[in-house]
Every structure is written in structure tokens, then in C-alpha cells.
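hey can u check if this looks right to u? its 64 residues, i copy pasted from the old doc so theres a chance i mangled smth
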Amino acid sequence: MKIFINALSSNGPLREELTLNEAAETVWAITSAEVYTLMVKDRGWPLGKYQKWLAMALTNLLLP
């Protein structure tokens, strides 16, 4: 996840209050297989809805 966060932060700023480690931990948690299983398998979300939600969540959590 740190490679992803380093690449992301090299293209623009992350949220001011986030350290690089916190950003990596956020990505690790929100993109986990467990969250995918909860939303898609257990809650019945279509894959497209999950993908849109994940993109929105990561954008809102990481970017200013």
C-alpha cells in the first residue's frame, strides 16, 4: 500500500491531517477482502456499485 500512496502523493497532495502511514493503513483497510465480502457477498451489492463506492470512499478519505 505504501507504493500506491507514494505514487498518489507524488501526483498531488493528500489530506493535510494524514501521514503517509495513515494513508496506507486507510487504503489497506478499505480495500480489504473482508470489506469486499461484506458489501458484495453479504449485502448483495452489484460489483459496479462496490467499485463506485470504493472510488468515492478512497477519494474522500485520502484527497483534499
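The first helix runs from residue 2 to 10.
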